Amino acid sequence: MTDLTSLTIAEARQGLANKAFTARELTDAHLKAMEAARLLNAYVLETPDRAREMARAADEAIAKGEGGPLAGIPLGIKDLFATRDIRTTACSRILGNFIPSYESTITSQLWRDGAVLLGKLNNDEFAMGSSNETSCFGPVANPWRRAGSNTDLVPGGSSGGSASAVAAMLCMGATATDTGGSIRQPAAFTATVGIKPTYGRCSRWGIVAFASSLDQAGPIARSVRDAAILMRSMAGHDPKDTTSADVPVPDYEAAIGKSVKGMRIGIPREYRLDGMPGEIEKLWSEGAEWLKAAGAELVEVSLPHTKYALPAYYIVAPAEASSNLARYDGVRYGLREPARNIIEMYEKTRAEGFGAEVRRRVMIGTYVLSAGYYDAYYLRAQKVRTLIKKDFEDCFAKGVHAILTPATPSAAFGIGEKGGADPVEMYLNDIFTVTVNMAGLPGIAVPAGRDAQDLPLGLQLIGRPFDEETLFSLGAIIEQAAGRFTPARWW
Ligand code: GLN
Questions:
Q1: How close is the Cα of 189 to the center of ligand 1, in Å?
Q2: Per residue in 436-482, pLDDT tens?
């Protein structure tokens, strides 16, 4: 029997239905792989007892013919999702040993459908970062390494644990969140598939908030089909989230293999950056050719406000973060530093509990929202945001079905290599992904090739609101042309 951890979700579903193996065996294989891969630091908490109990329940349900669409499928959960009775920290010291008494809507939908919880996955503190280096649990290693090198690379961020665990086969799929690129960039760095759905598609209830108008959850998986399977369980209207959209959830899997003949694919000229590596340029044109060969029509489009997206994002996101993070005051959750009076307690707790990047964001956010600066920064950034959204609307109004871009400006980099002296160097990772959050659109990252050092690179497809199906159809074509690739095991 092949190693059960190397199966896709679609294959495992088949194997479970055919009784080729049990959910318990599938879960045990993953728990063993996790134990052997602790060097990667992908999990911040393993939940083997819970996993075995859930697998046993899945086996029973399957035997009775009552298994849900994810019966017995072992998953990892980003530590930003509240899990009842299981420590949830957002990888911040300030949450300490916080144990929620409630379950996020998305995870409860996954358990409703029969999935198995393997553990909680590492991420950048409060999802602020692009390399998973801001986590209070330390960095995550990417299972990919440069050809002939032993240097540990970052898996991207903020969903670094999710991407690393999926790529290293330490779970069959994972939940992730994306505020400016945190699903798509780590997916591109690890040769996994990640989709950020349309804003409002998946409930944010029970997910630790970073920037509420940009945050959106989605899956990371090893194939486009697996991402579609997970999306179906994660998506859906939730009255507990006032920004959740009451739009029917289609069978995303049915979009795979659908013809894309006649679809118009926009190639935005503003995404051709000065000094962009030739390999990224080449990957992008190859991807366009694959879609053309499948019958799509390529059209050059313009998204003129693209260059303002990153600066505007770094006003809007910290502004929202500074108000969301005001709740961590040492009274309600986790850490409390002893002090002589309440003001000192707030100050000491927040200074001790937040890491450097989070403190930077809180300060930027407080500054741009303060009287006298609000109009110059925050209000202006909101206006820019509207223009960015309009760029996309104009493009779709001209009959464009989806837009093809690179997912990231480079492949994975080494741990400690970027952003030490200048945080903007790290922020530039999201140059191709933040626009999508600013506009609330869906975006998928699909592995599409390798660079000269043999590291994976990804392409991004951006879709119309609530048209994730087209992204799955087009993504499947890229996947088929590029093939799927997995890292050589060294851990
Ligand atoms: N890297 C971006 C940031 O640090 C986006 C993070 C995210 O999408 N959560 O804000």
A1: 15
A2: 999 999 999 999 999 999 999 999 999 999 999 999 999 999 999 99
56 CB burial (10 A radius; 0-12, 13-18, 19+): middle
Considering just the CA atoms, what is the radius of gyration of the chain in Å?
Answer: 21
Query: Cα-flanking dihedrals φ and ψ of residue 463, to 5°?
Result: -115, 175
Query: Separation of 342 CA from ligand 1 center, angstroms?
Result: 32
* 52 three-state secondary structure: helix
Q: Does the Cβ of 310 fall within 6 Å of ligand 1?
A: no
The encoded tokens of residue 294 equal 């499948």
In whole angstroms, how far apart are CA 77 and each of 163, 408, 476? 11, 24, 25
Four-CA torsion 201, 205, 207, 212, nearest 10 degrees: 70
Q: Coil, strand, or helix at residue 16?
A: helix
Query: Which alpha helices (DSSP H) does 211-336 contain, by range?
Result: 224-234, 278-293, 309-324
Amino acid, res. 161? G
- Domain borders along the chain are 4-262+410-482
The alpha carbon of 353 is separated from its chain's Cα centroid by a whole number of angstroms, namely 24
DSSP 375: I
Using DSSP's 3-state secondary structure scheme, residue 377 falls into helix
357 lines ligand 1 (CB under 6 A): no
> Do the Cβ atoms of 191 and 224 come closer than 8 Å?
no
CA dihedral 104, 116, 186, 430 (to 10 degrees): -20
Secondary structure (DSSP) of 70-119: TTT-EEEEETTB-BTTB---TT-GGGTT---SS--HHHHHHHHTT-EEEE
Within 10 angstroms of residue 490's Cβ, the number of other Cβ atoms is 11
Q: How far apart are CA 323 and CA 305, in angstroms?
A: 27
Reported as a single tens digit per residue, the pLDDT across 219-278 is 999 999 999 999 999 999 999 999 999 999 999 999 999 999 999 999 999 999 888 889
Q: In what order do the strands lie in the sheet with 443-450?
A: 43-46, 116-121, 74-78, 173-178, 216-221, 193-196, 443-450, 456-463, 402-406, 264-268, 297-301
Which of 182, 203, 223, 244 is catalytic? The answer is 182
CATH 3.90.1300.10 for domain 4-262+410-482: yes
CA distance 166 to 447: 13
Question: Which of 355, 378, 356 minimizes the C-alpha distance to 365?
Answer: 378
Tens of pLDDT along 58-87?
999 999 999 999 999 999 999 999 999 999
Residues present in the chain in total: 491
